[in-house]
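Deviations from the work plan: none for this task. Representative record:
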Amino acid sequence: VTAAYSIGLDIGATKILGCVVDSAGRIIRQETVPTPLTDTASIEDALVEVTRSLLAHHVVEAVGVAVAGWVDKTRRSVLFSAHLPWRSEPLADRLSARLDLPVVLENDANAATWAEFQFGAGKPFRDFVVVTVGSGIGAGIIAGGQLLRGAHGLAGELGHAVVDPEGPECPCGRRGCLDSLASGRALQRRFQMLRAAALVADGESSLLDGNHMPGAAIAAAARSGDPLALQAFADVGRALGRGIADLVMYLDPAAVILGGGVAAAGELLRVPTDASLRQCLGTRNRSARTHILISPLSAVAGAIGAAHLASTHHQASDLHPA
Amino acid sequence: VTAAYSIGLDIGATKILGCVVDSAGRIIRQETVPTPLTDTASIEDALVEVTRSLLAHHVVEAVGVAVAGWVDKTRRSVLFSAHLPWRSEPLADRLSARLDLPVVLENDANAATWAEFQFGAGKPFRDFVVVTVGSGIGAGIIAGGQLLRGAHGLAGELGHAVVDPEGPECPCGRRGCLDSLASGRALQRRFQMLRAAALVADGESSLLDGNHMPGAAIAAAARSGDPLALQAFADVGRALGRGIADLVMYLDPAAVILGGGVAAAGELLRVPTDASLRQCLGTRNRSARTHILISPLSAVAGAIGAAHLASTHHQASDLHPA
């Protein structure tokens, strides 16, 4: 009897995370390599490199890849990604041929949602949503105990819901998308804007540096009581709650779990998001309460979920026929 | 062997429709009584009256009731209705005791969605949405071949999604809800407003009567080429497409089926809704196409769906544990 290990890969904007994961969702080993920003071949090479490095230490039965983009219903191809150069790329078959292992793909927010369902904050629920707040915003949906993938595998696109039609322009062509008001990038922009306004008001505009402070530093400033950092989290949380409100009315989840890098700020993000959601939902709360929770898995949820989906893909295929 | 008939009741704003339905979803007999607008006891009496009248002709195994309101997860109680006086009313048990038959409740949009899935335009799909455009707007969701009911049974609330934050005030407290821009009432208001503006422009404001023309009459006017009636459908369709766009991004359905009274206008509603949806979704259509269809069941879908849910409730309970 061999231990049932699988590998989960999560392709982030700056780095690729590779994890060997056991059947209980525990990470046995993890490595990262920088994400090549050049061409599809370089990213594929990096995925193979980190996987082979992990395979030098462990025997695994399958590889799952979490992708920031649209994965087709059969989990074999990347249809489109805003940040990666793939267009209808048969990535699973290409990796499988090079690694001589079964490979499945899944959208990163869906993979993280699956991890929360199996091992994280979603375990008690059959109906919940995971909203990943990283450099962009994604969502995954568990409905009736199943991952809701939709007719083409594209369900859970939350980032480009319009929260404020008068809001900032988004590269997608709309204005005031949730992505442009409540993502990690939006938090950085909001904090810098508040700081610039304060420096100008104090006659200290010479101190303006034009650089965005990383989200973790804004969270640290907020924890030490910086009023502008607290305000930035309040503003982002208000927009996030408004975007989540529509999703809650459509899906009636028992909980919304906040994951991704920005959710590592914990209560700083959860409290204003929750208050905004309550306000939007109004009297509905008397009949049905949706709880806002913070993911315990956070940055590794995508890799764990992809690994678990890969290891159970035959069963998963039975549950979710294409 | 007895024929497997069941009764479906649909409580509308003006009338209660009662149907005896066979196991293939065909209506064997139907009757209507006016909806009492006074108190809960009178509505309950009317439901019993129409059911007993149908029972005088047919033996049935169960009764399903489609309710314009929130039905709890167990399908026993009406939690809330905007138009009916029930608040946490154990309607199923009360009717069951009086009729000596099993009774189940379901939200009217969910019941209509179930009918489309079993017998209507949803038969070819495992992932689709029904948007009912009547005096108000409701939605029902089939995801992965199951009715998506949510954690508390309240999934599918589409009417109060905000489409235009600068739009008209809604009784729900928000502005520019889909309900206030794309329902049957919104169509009537829009047509009257366009007509009033045209009469004033022509110096014929003395002809203003202040009465809303029924939706069917506006549809007839549009079919005979009335430019204002065509414009009213174009405006309602544009708002409807915008509201549906978010739902499509979240759920990725293969189709959105338009039902309810206003959808009886067919292409008059479908064409502008489809054009608006395409515009909102932009390049997404290259990867995934969501079709807009018109319900073939229309006004009787709620009653047929409620009847079928009642007849198969034990199996349905297995599929959708509370």
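Chain A touches chain B through 47 residues (CB under 8 Å).
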